Amino acid sequence: MAGSPFFIAAFQISRTASSGHRSNTAPRRGNCIRVLQTSFPVPTGCVHGQTVPAGTVRKILRAYRRSPFDSGRLIMAAPAEARAVLSAEGWLSRQAEAFQEEVYRRAGLVNVAAGDVIFRYGDALGGLYGIVSGALLVTIGPPEEGPRLLHVLGRGRWVGEGCFLVREPRRVGLQAATDAALLHLPLEAMDRMAADDPLMTMRRIVQVLMGNLDILARAYSDLQSLDPDRRIAAALLRLNANPGTPIRVSQADLGVLSGTSRKAVNAALRRFADDGLTTTAYRSVAVKDAARLKRFVRDRE
Known about the structure:
By secondary structure, the chain is α+β, with helices and mostly antiparallel strands. It has 3 domains: 6-64, no CATH class; 76-220, Jelly Rolls, CATH 2.60.120; 225-299, Winged helix-like DNA-binding domain superfamily/Winged helix DNA-binding domain (Arc Repressor Mutant, subunit A). It is built from 10 helices and 14 strands. The chain has a 5-stranded antiparallel sheet with strand order 4-5-12-7-10. Strands 6-11-8-9 form a 4-stranded antiparallel sheet. The protein has a 3-stranded antiparallel sheet with strand order 1-2-3. A hairpin with a 2-residue loop joins strand 13 and strand 14 (284-287). One of its GO terms (cellular component) is cytosol. This is Crp/Fnr family transcriptional regulator. Residues 226-291 form the HTH crp-type domain. Residues 96-211 form the Cyclic nucleotide-binding domain.
């Protein structure tokens, strides 16, 4: 597709009435998009302010920023709030500034609604996601066994590195627990970064893997305790990646993560609340005193 580099940051859609009337910016039939600001390749001759058939723009978006959210969600360049969050928390904040800028240049922001599935176990190869806001459920298990909750990821966490590292389908599932904003670094962009600097790019992406393996190792260790209250408290500490922010998890899901029943979770949370360790709300728990909760876990080992 010939053309100059463009980024579609804003657009207008006009619909043609069945009577044949058209707006000043629309072609005679169907939808059109007025290009306001761009940095994606578009057909030669398209300039700012010119109308482009909507179908053409959708093809451009699919070709250059592949995402599971092609249907109706425009992926846009990382805005200031995404930079502010991901440059201060999590994996990307620990990388060199030049690498951060390269990620922001190649990545796009995706907004998802609670319940949206980002990808499933066994899905085709895809890219990396960083959480700007909201929470995501990580699930494991092939479809015939039903997905099982593994972890709840919050702001600043990254997931989806496996496809880049081993070139195999998704080994976990990812679903929005709440409305969320995600920074999506497509696999094609990761490959281009690796072509420029293979060793350092690989090392940096492996750091995402190691961080997620740390979560698995900690969960395995926590689940070996015979004390259900300790397992529940330990699960809350694993999920408390953003102190001061409520953990978006139901009591049933917390039971899965701690190997206990919903009834046991309900009773434990009441005791924790009475002791000033946590507060609860609908489908969320807030850790009020992480230091004391850690001591509780340690003292009951």
